[in-house]
TrEMBL record:
One of its GO terms (biological process) is cell-matrix adhesion. InterPro entries: Mesothelin, Stereocilin-rel. This is MSLN protein. Belongs to the mesothelin family.
Amino acid sequence: QLSCLLRMVTLHGIPKDLDSYPKELLLFLSPSAYAATGSCSQYFSNIGRADLHVLPRESPRRKELLLEALACLKVPGAQINEETAEILGHLGCDLGGQYIRASGGPLLKHLSHCGEFLPEQEEAIRDVLSSGNTTFGPPAAWSAFTLRELSGFIPVFDHSILQQIPK
């Protein structure tokens, strides 16, 4: 339906007020087509606020969007900084374990809203949290406040993390 709606909206070219349409509509528009109304970083910022569940998690289009976003934002290697994580928004939930490990805390903050993770992502999140090299510190120093901050990751905790958390 969204793809069909996009065809109708863009029948006579890309409208200047495209940003006022539902963000999910942009999931079916190419970044180059959007370029007429704004920058690619603006496009991916809008995509990052869209409901990505419109596209299946492992769909080719969703993977393509992530790769295009990383190219647009000129991400060097696998390290995602705070600003890039902010722009990626929900699209950041599809980043692989290598990005999570390389980026650490700045990316974790943005991943806490993802809800579910692939096994590779879960392992990377555990590695980063176990290392203690985040603003949360090592699990042995976590408080009730820290656990509230990390609530999106609690299903990812394994025995080795859980046993370190003070009672």
